[in-house]
Design brief:
heterodimer; A: alpha+beta; 18 helices; globular; B: mainly alpha; 76% helix; 0% strand
């Protein structure tokens, strides 16, 4: 035990509180963006839809089309070919090769990325260069990608972002466990939500009720999120460091099954037939396909499948490229099926909630929303109870700023996207600057308002106002389809997202907190002793 | 009918039980001073709690994991909604 003076203790307490709130704010940002990212594909279609939707991720005839495209690219790029739907539903075909690391330069992929309309398989555009450049070349998925980058890496470069979000995942686990432990009457209180009572009781109840009902999923989302962040940032490099002298590329190659090296030329078998065979064999729908060593006798085709109906684990099957013969079912991890591999395979559906299409996404969105609400209300409670203490008023204001300013800034990014986008042309760092500008502007509004409540109302209305004009900007400024055109083109999500934006905007504009003078009561009277709490509340 | 739609339908009986549990919850009634209706006894609440989760058992037994998760998540979200709705309804 260290005997610190009162002054030092107070300073340490302030540092402790500030750092906790800072972490909490970042966690809130990760949860909120993750909640929106559940509808990553739907947002992509809404923001920049293709001419006509396709009824499946890999449309019929894609195999024949790929063979034509393969003749038009540098033969070196047939080393590996990946075909997958982008967030907006268009197809991306990446013909590429792997360039080994050299002193002073990391390994990278170099190739030609071709964008295809999903319904006609017509080529929209193509670009050649290193992978990180070619994927940034197109702006059609910029909005979804920005949201994902914010969620996965907090816009930080390299592995730093994964480290940060991984740590935040563990912080969320700690918050969920500690919340569970300190709330002694979780089941007893699970339906008790006091309204029109002392402000602190109502706010505490709202936080506890949302936290209680979302608790099991908070565990799941936090654990799977930390797994994804640390799996990439620590797990794979550690495996590579231990077994492959730090060479991640080699580690990944060894984990891939091989059919035996044979560089002799051989035409690729009927790819459409392989896709049909994979669907029949697994009961799932092909989601994407990768072809290694196209045009060689040792070509290998990997077809990644959706889970079969009612199932959770997505599958993958391998075919010999030259003969089209089924090779083997690919386990989720390694080369042989294992319990650990199945557990690892569960992480993705449990985190993204995309295992059963729209129904599971809606449920996961609601669970994510509840978790974001719990994170924000927890910090608001924590800071506002201490608002009268030196330094805490600013922290309370900062909490309110990010709580309400982040949605406003994200809405501003969407508005900026519609104002700037020109077809599928890339946007560079425009969305990042818009986002940072939005945060700066909302900070100014928040800190210059007469009170935290006034700032909150202002930011909420700003969010509502921006969301309300988004459908109009999408339709008129970004030349998106109108509702009738969208519906006749199979782009129903455009209409659904427009309506969701309008309803969300109206909810933000209509929301107002009761203007009763808040009554704060001591912790002792609200935590355990219900009778005292009720008495205090009644007095208020 | 898709098994995932079945999961959505199975959430209906669970919602009814949730509503009953919430409507007659002893602490909620006490806090809101609703003395005109009798709270559920501990035994009744235990029985209803078991019934609340029973619609998910066939999904588990038949191995429909995705449908089970949809139903399970829905029950928790509907529980939150029921608590919110009952808190704003007039006494």
């Amino acid at each position: 035990m260290i005997n610190a003076s009162t002054r030092i203790t107070k300073s340490l307490l302030a540092i402790h509180g500030w750092s906790a709130v800072f972490l909490g704010l970042l966690l809130y940002a990760v949860i909120l963006t993750g909640t929106l990212a559940v509808f990553e594909h739907e947002l992509g279609v809404w923001a920049n839809p293709p001419v006509q939707a396709s009824d499946r991720p890999l449309p019929e005839g894609i195999g024949a089309r790929l063979k034509i495209l393969a003749d038009s690219v540098d033969p070196a790029y047939l080393d590996e070919v990946g075909v997958f739907p982008a967030a907006d539903g268009r197809l991306m075909a990446f013909f590429h090769t792997h360039i080994d690391a050299e002193p002073g330069r990391e390994a990278f992929e170099d190739g030609t990325l071709i964008l295809l309309e999903p319904s006609t398989l017509d080529e929209v555009d193509r670009v050649t260069g290193p992978a990180d450049e070619v994927f940034r070349h197109f702006g059609n998925n910029a909005l979804s990608n920005f949201l994902l980058d914010l969620h996965i890496r907090l816009l930080l470069p390299g592995q730093w972002g994964l480290w940060a979000t991984g740590l935040l995942g563990f912080a969320m686990l700690v918050a969920a466990v500690s919340g569970f432990v300190i709330h002694k009457h979780l089941l007893k209180d699970i339906f008790t939500l006091r309204r029109r009572r002392a402000d602190v009781l109502a706010a505490r109840d709202a936080h506890v009720i949302a936290g209680s009902w979302s608790l099991p999923f908070a565990f799941v989302l936090a654990f799977t999120g930390a797994f994804f962040s640390f799996g990439g940032a620590i797990g794979l490099p550690m495996l590579a460091a231990i077994a492959f002298g730090g060479d991640v590329e080699t580690a990944l190659e060894v984990l891939q099954p091989e059919v035996g090296e044979d560089a002799s030329p051989a035409a690729l078998a009927d790819l459409d037939g392989i896709l049909a065979s994979a669907a029949a064999r697994t009961g799932g729908e092909p989601q994407n396909v990768f072809i290694n060593h196209w045009g060689r006798a040792d070509a290998l085709v990997t077809v990644r499948m959706s889970a079969e109906e009612g199932g959770l684990l997505p599958g993958a099957v391998l075919y010999k490229g030259a003969s089209g013969e089924f090779f083997k079912t690919l386990p989720n991890l390694g080369n042989e099926p294992s319990f650990g591999g199945d557990l690892a395979g569960l992480m993705s559906p449990l985190h993204f909630g995309n295992f059963a299409g729209t129904p599971s996404k809606v449920v996961w969105f609601a669970l994510g929303f509840a978790s974001a609400y719990v994170a924000l209300t927890g910090m608001v409670l924590w800071t506002r109870r201490r608002e009268s203490e030196p330094g805490w008023e600013r922290l309370a204001r900062a909490t309110a700023w990010l709580g309400y300013g982040l949605p406003a800034s994200l809405a501003a990014v969407a508005a900026g996207y519609f104002l700037m986008i020109d077809g599928i042309a890339g946007l560079g760092n425009t969305l990042l600057f818009l986002f940072l500008g939005g945060l700066f502007l909302t900070a100014l509004l928040s800190f210059s308002a007469s009170s935290t409540d006034v700032a909150n109302r202002l930011l909420l209305r700003l969010t509502g106002a921006i969301m309300l004009v988004l459908p109009l900007l999408r339709w008129q400024v970004a030349d998106g389809p109108g509702w009738l055109t969208a519906l006749s083109s199979g782009l129903g999500w455009v209409v659904v997202m427009d309506i969701s934006m309008i309803l969300g905007a109206l909810a933000c504009l209509a929301y107002h907190r009761r203007q009763d003078a808040p009554v704060w009561v001591s912790d002792a009277s609200v935590d355990d002793d219900l009778t005292v709490a009720e008495r205090v509340a009644d007095a208020a | 009918m898709s098994i995932d739609v079945v999961a959505l339908l199975l959430a209906l009986p669970s919602t009814l039980i949730l509503w009953l549990l919430a409507d007659r919850d002893p602490k909620r009634l006490r806090v809101r001073r609703l003395r005109d209706r009798a709270p559920l006894s501990t035994r009744q609440r235990k029985i209803f709690s078991v019934l609340l989760f029973s619609p998910g058992l066939p999904l588990l037994a038949l191995g429909y994991w995705s449908a089970f998760l949809i139903w399970f998540g829905l029950v928790f979200m509907l529980g939150w909604c029921v608590a919110l709705i009952l808190s704003v309804l007039p006494r």
